[in-house]
């Protein structure tokens, strides 16, 4: 996602909660900024935060399937 689009998305999203289920690389022009962005709310993540968020999401999905 383009960094300026992500910024606009963050402003429009506001402070609503988000589960950050879809995260992709952030770009400025054609260059990867080394950050990642949630496609739903526009929140930026560094590499470590992105990996932790994806891991937490996997754990939540695994727990929900075990309960059902």
Describe this structure in words.
The protein has two helices and three strands. It has 68 residues and is an alpha+beta fold. It has one domain (3-67). Strands 1-2-3 form a three-stranded antiparallel sheet. Strand 2 and strand 3 (44-45) form a beta hairpin.
Write the layout of secondary structure elements.
Elements (H helix, E strand, L loop, with lengths): L2 H11 L9 E6 L2 E8 L5 E2 L1 H21 L1
Please give the share of residues in helix: 40-55%
Main-sheet strand order equals 1-2-3
Unreliable parts: none
Find the count of extended strands (DSSP E, 2+ residues).
3
* Rounded Rg: 13 Å
Oligomer classification:
single chain
% residues in beta strands: 15-25%
Tell me the overall shape: globular
Helix-strand pattern, N to C? HEEEH
How many helices? The count is 2
Largest sheet: 3 strands, antiparallel
pLDDT averaged over residues: 93
Q: How many domains? A: 1
Structural class: alpha+beta
Distance between the termini: 35 Å
